[in-house]
Amino acid sequence: IGEWTLPGARFPLEMARDADAGSNSLLTYQLTGNPSFSLAMKERPGGVNQPELVLERALDREKQSTFELVLTAVDGGDPAKSGTVQIRVNVTDANDNAPVFSKNVYEARVAENLPAGSLVLRVRATDEDAGSNGQVSYFFGNVPVAVSALFTVDRESGEIRTAGPLDFEGKNKYIFGLEATDGGGLTDHCQVQIDIMDENDNAPDITVLSLSSPVPEDAPIGTVVAVLNVNDPDSGENGQVSCELSGESPLSILASPGGSYKVLVLAKALDREEAAFHELVLTASDGGDPARTGTARIRVTVLDANDNAPVFSEAEYTVRVPEDVPVGSVLVTVTASDTDEGLNGHVKYS
Prior knowledge:
- This protein is mostly beta strands.
- The protein folds into four domains: 9-90, Immunoglobulin-like, CATH 2.60.40.60; 100-197, Immunoglobulin-like; 205-303, Cadherins (Immunoglobulin-like), CATH 2.60.40; 308-349, Cadherins (Immunoglobulin-like).
- The protein is built from one helix and 25 strands.
- It has one helix at residues 145-150, and strands at residues 10-12, 28-32, 37-44, 48-55, 66-74, 82-90, 100-101, 105-111, 119-122, 125-126, 137-140, 151-153, 159-162, 173-181, 187-197, 205-211, 215-216, 224-231, 241-245, 251-255, 261-266, 277-286, 293-303, 311-312, 336-337.
- The protein has a four-stranded mixed beta sheet with strand order 8-15-14-11, with no helix packed on it. It has a four-stranded antiparallel beta sheet with strand order 16-18-21-20, with no helix packed on it.
- The radius of gyration is 50 Å and the shape is rod-shaped.
- The N and C termini lie far apart (132 Å).
């Protein structure tokens, strides 16, 4: 009997036979077993009563799929004799139950750069119906192309796997819908939320925004020499960058309040006569484990200032000459040098 059958439906039952005659063969019927069914008699030609099974209540296969009843036939003899037969009622399934997801929202956290085919999560929907009515298939809902390009869903198992590379810096959260459909076309829907966790897959990048070179050697301490932008698109500690200058540098680093801009300023006086230029290497390191680094090379040329006076090669020149030396004779050659550059180092005598 189908579970969609309405109460009041009748189902003919097999009649009993009694070989006696007269009142000894007059039969009555009784039904025992379940209040969902009752017994009715239908008179057939010749005055014979046909027993019929009457459905009293609506059936629900998911609550009870079978019923065990006993039909008893009793003759009219004295003493009466009886015979019994067992009636098994199997309830046929109707697609009266839609699939139901175990959760309304499924959440997962996965690391970026997972290999294609990696398992992200598994959804599950159940259907109380039987046969094809209870077989559930899984599909994407109306999702953007970006989602279907990055994820796949197995129609039978409900496993969601990666189909392409995930990039935290491109997008760190995906929310989309899934649909479960049974063999009869009934559906249920759920939401999937996948959070992408950052991996330290980006090294700091240093960009020189401005550079003042050459720098006068008499520039005061604190003079701004360069402005740099240091960027790491990773998040958390993976994106927190610290910077340092290599070697004995005349510059120091000042960080902007946001931390992404670095200002190089003079930390000590310059002396072109000691070093005409400075080759600096700025190293930026993030807080990942292991850390990633980025470098930038900066050349600062020192512009000469006239900070050195000429110096004679001798503090005193003593010359002995005869009194009759001709006019115009060279008595002595004096030399003076100046360590400055260009005109600042060009020496004149008077």
